[in-house]
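Shipment paperwork, digital attachment
Item: protein structure file
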Amino acid sequence: MRTIRVFLASPGDVAAERAIILKVLDKLNYDPLLKDQARLEPVAWDHLGTRTPMVATKTPQQAIIDGMTLPSECDLVVVIFWSRMGTPLDVDTHGTKPDGTPYLSGTEWEYLDALAAAEACGAPQVVVYRRTEKVLLDPDAADFDERHHQYNLVKAFFAAFRTPAGAFKRGFNEYPTPDQFETDFEHDLRFLINELLKRPAAPRPAAPPALAHWPGSPFPGLRAFTPADAPIFFGRSREVAALVKRVLSHRFVAVVGASGSGKSSLVGAGLIPRLETLEDSQTWLLPGWRSASESGEWTGLRFTPGELGDNPFLALAARLAPLMGDTPREVAATLAADPSQIASLCEQAAHSRRRAEVLLFIDQFEELFTVVGGSYRGAFVDLLRAAHASSAARVVVTMRSDFYHRCVDYPPLAALLEEGSFPLSVPTDTLLEMITRPAERAGLTFDEGLPGRILKDTGDEPGALALMAYTLDELYHACQTSRALTHAAYDDLGGVEKAIGTRAEKTFAGLKIAGPDAVLQRVFHELVEVDERGTATRRRTALASLMSDPACAELVTAFTEARLLVTDERGSEATVEVAHEALFRSWGKLAEWIQRMQDDLRLMRQFERDARDWQQRERPAGLQPKHEQLIYFEAALRHLNIERDQLDPLLRAYTEPEQERLLREVNDLPSTADRHGRRRDIGDRLSVIGDPRSGVGLDANGLPQIDWLPVTPGGDIKIGGKRFTVKPFYIAKYLVTYAQYQAFVKAEDGFENPAWWEGMPKEYRRQELKEQLILSLNNPRDNVSWYQAVAYTRWLSARPPLAPAILRIWLLSARTTPRLNTCTFSRKWR
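Attachment content:
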């Protein structure tokens, strides 16, 4: 195997191209057509393998010369220029060029060193590139003269490639932008490698080390790529270059695309690593983007608005606070009270790391509308506007395109999006690269024709990219023992279209729990958010709330092991969420349930948001929902198979039945002048919504339900000089209500039955029943005569036998004053 050493020579303004060269070299090392023939070894002062420290006793160029292989000793030298020639070299230390003039820069010294060797002995190959993108110079900038001078030196350098007559003496390659350079350079490098392989190999002291493969799966599954995944992130070069350019020119950029289009991955594994390679990367604050944890998780200043509940300021503060030595709650309180403080806080954070700017990456920005409390939204938009106006911060957000319309409700946010939107579509022409390149990096092979088959099955529908990534990850786990990805394993998965659904169904079928469908509803009603358009999105919830139920815990554990759910145990409270929203579409059982329950899910979320708002307002009674609203809430609970005692304590308190609240108020009313008026109002309201008190309504059979109070022990009483013996009896707790008397009026054997009127004067038998004066079901029946009351007691006496008892009936007529009368049950026991 040949080792081909590739030297990189350039000034600092083409750091993006240097990063691209290193990426392409690494990529081709795993190319099946080259990996067994040649090993490409980069030689660059900023490369980890050959990085040279700058020491105080040497000039930078001396350190490079002494610490690295010289350009003339390499096989290929790549020289790149754009707007700068670089720092001039000291004549006393480095001498002059053959024509006696000083070297314009270290890059020119490296180019001439390689060129002299190539002209003398045919090696190394020297290839020169020039970026033709327009150079923008600000005439008011303090360094304008220096930048202008540098640009003129570059023009003079390339002018020497031609004769005075304009003919070319030497060749060089032009390209417009870094993304085009990647395409051109890879093509050129393949050609140059083939040319070098035709030449005899120069003797080497040792064989190249074994090629290190990517550990584990090179496919992300349902998770997003992170900065640590940059070596296996392929197929987005054009979008990455465009996004970098947009971020450098705008302080607010929103990456907008359909669910599953790769928004988070583009920022995580594309934008962030590229920003780290820029010449002025020291001006960016990117702490902790790469985590040392085996899980590959990364934090830095990435957060989602709802990751710590409905307060987005707390989520942001959890990232900012450690940089300033404050507590997250202190920072969150500061920002919530005055969102414009984000500017000064970012300045403090940047200063603590000796940086000039902070990059805030807000992932899953749609949570601003699905999770964040309504009282926080406007203030958080004000924070974004303040960050945009600050010189210490830049903001990048990712947002699903189906939530774009929600931003119009907030004019400042709409203005930011109008200026900084970055639309992202599902890739089509680079999907094959996304399939094959990561596999090469991990040392995997495909059965003949399998990549093309996967490509065809993926299609270009929204969410297809996530389905493909999950299928490839499942394919890796099915075939990892052989390192060969096969057609048979792909068929077992059900292809791209069915892979997630197949895995979910198998996992669900393997659960050993009673009532699995009810458990599924219990878990996923916490994990699904549905908007007014019926669009399902994932929802993060507290892990403890699900793990407290053994059956739910088993489902969550099984689906987490299947990589369909993900848990996050960072912070004070562990959370769980769906790995990707593709699960909502691809698992038929879940998709059907979401479709059927979407109205109930949407209603539940609205009540949860209202409950949080109620809590923030210190729980005023007037803001709790009325009975008419709670009817729909209770129906949703039934449909979702949720018991009230399973609800979050706050939601349970907020949705307390109105009857219970009113009855508690009646019992707690103070002795004030308006007490009786309030009791009357509560009674009227209970009459409308249903009075749950025993003794004022009807039983399950439609008969008056009377609460009897014992009158004991009885005894003798004296009335008008006569003594009477009273035996123990019962008396009704409440006056007979309108609802209870109406049961007598409407009963087939009730008011119209002559039996109840026997022995009464003829003119009082079934006399006309007057209208109720106060028409409420739980008000005492008024406007009845003595005989109508007696008929009622006779009818009620004929119901199931009762002990001797007295009903209390409020009698009111035009000729009498209101009075309380008693009618005694006369029926004997049988």
